[in-house]
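Hypothesis: this fold can be encoded by more than one sequence.
Test: take the structure tokens below, design a sequence, compare later.
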């Protein structure tokens, strides 16, 4: 988007943020191996992941630009000018943000019942990581 806006006669006519408030647009999904067979590895991964998220949230620092540029091939100048989407530094999923979607699915006969939060996601890995890292 940044490249298109900078190189063409294009403009943003509406921002999506007001319509997506509370939406989880990315989550980490664990399989049986990490959940049941090797939860210690799942915990260590979440600690490393949240360390990365917290560094990312520092924004376009010289180090972050270097890391992301090397990983993506996008030059640091372009990266410095883009919007860096927010990610929760604690890794917690906003369950309430899923309810509008779940209600729509329910109303359209694509879901039999609202999935309760304790079934919707397992917060044990996030809680363990935050215990190691401390509050963001």
């Amino acid at each position: 988007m940044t490249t298109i806006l900078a190189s063409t006669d294009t403009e943003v006519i509406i921002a999506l943020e007001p319509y997506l408030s509370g939406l989880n647009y990315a989550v980490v999904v664990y399989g049986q191996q990490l959940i049941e067979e090797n939860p210690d590895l799942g915990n260590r991964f979440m600690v490393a992941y949240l360390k990365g998220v917290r560094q990312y949230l520092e924004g376009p620092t010289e180090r972050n630009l270097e890391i992301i540029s090397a990983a993506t091939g996008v030059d640091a100048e372009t990266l410095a000018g883009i919007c860096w989407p927010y990610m929760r530094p604690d890794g917690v999923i906003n369950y309430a943000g899923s309810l509008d979607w779940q209600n729509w699915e329910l109303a359209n006969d694509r879901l039999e019942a609202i999935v309760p939060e304790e079934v919707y996601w397992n917060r044990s890995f996030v809680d363990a990581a935050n215990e190691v890292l401390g509050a963001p």
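The mean pLDDT is 91. DSSP finds eight helices and no strands in the chain.
Hypothesis status: open.
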